[in-house]
Amino acid sequence: MFLQTNRIRSVTLFALVALSILSACDNKPQQRLVLLGGDTMGTSWSVKITDLPASIERSALNTELQAELEIINAGMSTYRDDSEISRLNQYNGADAFPVSEDFYTVLKEALRVAELSNGAFDITVGPLVNLWGFGPVKIPDHVPSDKDIEEKLSHTGFNKILLLENEQHAVKKTDPDIYIDLSAIAKGYAVDRLAEILEHNSIENYMVEIGGEIRLRGINDRGQAWVIAVEKPVAGERSALMLVQPKQAAIATSGDYRNYFEENGIRYSHTIDPTTGRPITHHLASVSVVSESCMTADALATALMVMGPEHGLSFAKQQNLAVLFVVKTENGFETIATDPMKFYLE
Ligand code: ADP
Ligand code: MG
Question: Best mutation site among 41, 85, 183 for ligand 1, i.e. most ligand atoms within 8 A of its Cβ?
Fold first, then answer.
């Protein structure tokens, strides 16, 4: 059997690049741009700040942001055996499992988007993500057997997670084999947390980015609104397809071209359709969502990616979401923007 492996991990890659556009007639004075960053969640994070207040020390702020990311990762990383999420996944009792505020907030939003998207977004697909080789355990790229997919599917379903809003927040798993994977929402949450820290420090002009999920406020170093380039969804290429100006909001992108493997000429992406237990198969190459909350945008982007171009577009219209779809056609890429998204396009 011919097996072609072409897997690209989203380790240091991100789906969007920020561009500062300098118009020819621009004669505003240059403003000071401060760059912060590091590694987190198997990818990189970066923060750009225009006019950092003089009272704030750059390296201290970098340390504060990195420390916050450490806390989030210690809660939500399935790549760590001792994280809160891994302990919950390993726990197979029927009692309530107390969880931290961060974790609870993300679970609650994950379940809201799961309900809203009729299960297209489902954080219990973890066992299938792992079975297909896109999880923490590295296994050779291959298409699993129908039997294995069926077996894993029988232990999925977001309805099997119950949130208990007591004085100490807690979670109940009604199936002990439920395994939660927050990879499609945790980066967005972390972006929101970093943005909150910046605002708490009276920083009004920033761009926060983790693995392609972005939140913006204010102006760039050229005194203009930040502009984001939505990447052409081609593996190995990094060129801009479309420019978006989300103003005071967040933008998250889901794509099929960064993390996948190929077998017999078929591409298997890391986005799993929770109804089939298999990677999505339609012609949607990427979806970008603008929302006030990066956590919400991140989850919705994955939900829309699962829904595909037709159902996704009708869902986005019905929910009045700002979405840019990039669809593969015989003549290249076709972009479709919903009305609320048109407002942000350059
Ligand atoms: P993308 O940028 O393509 O959305 P993310 O890293 O944000 O990538 O999310 C993809 C990850 O989400 C997968 O690697 C997997 O762990 C998880 N995932 C896959 N399918 C689903 C789904 N239907 N619902 C929720 N999470 C999913
Ligand atoms: Mg995502």
Answer: 183
Number of compact structural domains in the chain: 2
**Is there a single domain that holds both residue 190 and residue 291?**
yes
Looking at ligand 1, which residue's alpha carbon is closest to its atom 5? 184
Per-residue CA distances from 10 to 7, 74, 210 (Å): 10, 20, 11
Ligand nearest to the CA of 157: 1
Closest-CA residue, ligand 1 atom 7, reads 184
Whether 228 and 326 map to the same domain: the answer is: yes
Q: What is the CATH number of the domain that holds 154?
A: 1.10.3980.10
List the shell of residues around ion ligand 2, using CB closer than 5 Å. Answer: 184, 254, 298, 301-302
Residue 19, pLDDT above cutoff 60: no
Residue 248 near residue 279 (C-beta atoms within 8 A): no
For 41, residues 6+ apart whose C-beta sits below 8 A from its C-beta are: 69, 73, 77, 186, 187, 190, 210, 211
Distances (CA, A) of 171 to 95, 103, 208: 9, 10, 30
Among residues of the chain, what percentage have pLDDT more than 70?
Answer: 91
Same domain, yes or no, for 294 and 319? yes
Confidence (pLDDT) at 162: 96
| pLDDT tens for each residue of 203-254 | 999 999 999 999 999 999 999 999 999 988 888 888 899 999 998 999 999 9
Q: What pLDDT score was predicted for residue 20?
A: 39
Does 138 or 98 have the greater pLDDT score?
A: 98
What's the CA-to-centroid distance between 195 and ligand 2, angstroms?
18
Q: Which domain holds residue 50?
A: 6-74+185-342
Smallest CA separation from ligand 1 atom 6, residue: 184
Average confidence score pLDDT of the chain: 89
Pocket of ligand 1 (CB under 6 A): 15, 121-123, 125, 129, 134, 181, 183-184, 187, 253-255, 270-272, 274, 298, 301-302, 306
Whether 116 maps to a domain, the answer reads yes
Residue 241, C-beta contacts closer than 8 angstroms, at least 6 positions apart: 229, 230, 231, 232, 233, 326, 333, 335
Q: Is 302 part of a structural domain of the chain?
A: yes
Q: Are residues 112 and 84 in the same domain?
A: yes
